[in-house]
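All the exercises in this workshop are built on plain-text protein records. A record pairs a protein's sequence with a compact description of its fold. The structure tokens are whole numbers drawn from a learned vocabulary of backbone shapes. Once this layout is familiar, the rest of the handout is easier to follow. An example says more than a description, so a record of this kind follows.
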Amino acid sequence: MTKKLLTGNEAVARGFWQAGGKVVSAYPGTPSTEITENAAHYAELYAEWAPNEKVALEVALGAAVGGARSMAAMKHVGLNVAADPLFTAAYTGINAGLVIISADDPGMHSSQNEQDNRHYALAAKIPCLEPSDSAEALAFTELALDLSEEFDTPVLLRLTTRVSHGQSTVELSKRTEQSIKPYVRDIQKYVMAPAGARPRHAVLEKRMLELSAYAEKTEVNRLELRDKAIGIVCSGAAYQYVREALPQASVFKLGLVNPLPKQRLCDFSAAVEKLYVVEELDAFYEQQLKSWGIKCCGKELFSLLGEIFPPQIKTAITKQDTILHEETPNLPPRPPVLCAGCPHRATFTAIKKLKAPVMGDIGCYTLAAGPPLSAIDTTVCMGASVTMSHGLAKAQENAKVKPLSVLGESTFIHSGITGLINAVYNQAQITVVILDNSITAMTGHQHNPASGYNVRSLPAPVLDLAALSKACGVEYVKTVNPFDQKALTAALKGAQEFVGPAVIISKYPCILLPYVKRDKPLFVDWEICVGCKVCLSIGCPALSLKGTKTVIDSSQCTGCALCAGLCAKKAIYGRDNK
């Protein structure tokens, strides 16, 4: 066997390939994105970027029903979008194995919330596995497919950011080819009208009893008996932290986290003097243990917020101190900002002139909410910018300005289209600004249906956003270059005056794309600059102050000239046009 250092995400892709997987569908979302990117490297796998997570899971489910081992990958909030097929797929079951990846994000490193998706497994009544390192990420992916076929169920594989992006040693094996199982038409199994769903519910409950019996014997639930004074129940990244903080403590490590092995946990509780539960986010294990009458300490000592690290574990258990959410040290703030030359900055510069409510969305442009741009009022979830501006317009019918929706082209495709249809149908007075930068940028430059390429960077049909908007019934549709501030301002003003929903497509590629040409950096003439700081209002990281005068970092400046257009004194210039 070959040993290799892999991230958890790389290991999941490898495990799926080794287990004879065939179809992978996903929507990019940190910390899950690299699973599909790595799956695309294996020639035997069909991999795709789907428009959203619901589509991805339905594609994977269709492939599984069609006899091919399949996988749908997403971050934790993506499972909210995919919840509709998830719960019903637990009723229908599968044909070939189906593994669903939920990459949770304790600490909100790149997310709008902290949600604990172990609850989805409990609510949907499907098995859930949680690896603690890359080796287990690979092994548990293989196991998930086996369990899926053995118990005729989708299986949830829950990762967290530290496991997804952390690296550890993995033993690689060859691929085990799996023949495509015959597709069998079975109306009673797969048509979930009430007449078919009622008996399938009984199947589901019987399956959970069988899985509970399996949980009592599987080796992925592991007893590590050491000093009996302290016993700890844990899983995932928390297991690694427990072993580092308290190496002599007895541990019951959970690998199958739903259903839990009730009898083995009762026996473990009886074997130790005091039982602790160390788990990030919710008291998922603790509540179940206490419901069985098992005495344990958990969230009395550990916070419901963020991640839990070794020093916190050691302090809480050995000193019996309650550990609250760990505050960030008192350091100067360094918030993320839009890149120098980002076309979104140009769009927001024009939008701010309207002094209108701006409903934001999920993407790079979310960064425009912070100062000095301060150009976004809300950010909730994918596509909510369109529907929230609709609702705001209906609530504020006598407002002098239309509310704006701002979202990227990938987010619009993900879940903005139905909101736009709703706005047309119900005659909402809103303006939807689609920031088309030719890529899904925030998650690391993944392609989407409007970029012209697929997951393997091969040419693909390009979705025409203007034609789509018109097909939804929008009459006012304008496509503009955001760096043409005059044209963009005119388009925004026209949208405000138009009666009915309007769409503006602010189109310019992400400045970080390798094919995008950068102009020569600009300079400031200090003899002309009066230190008014108007140029700093756009929040470009290439601009700063030296004394009272603006300076431009030539290593960052892309020559977009947005700042030059704001300078009333014409103190900002290029070497070629002074």
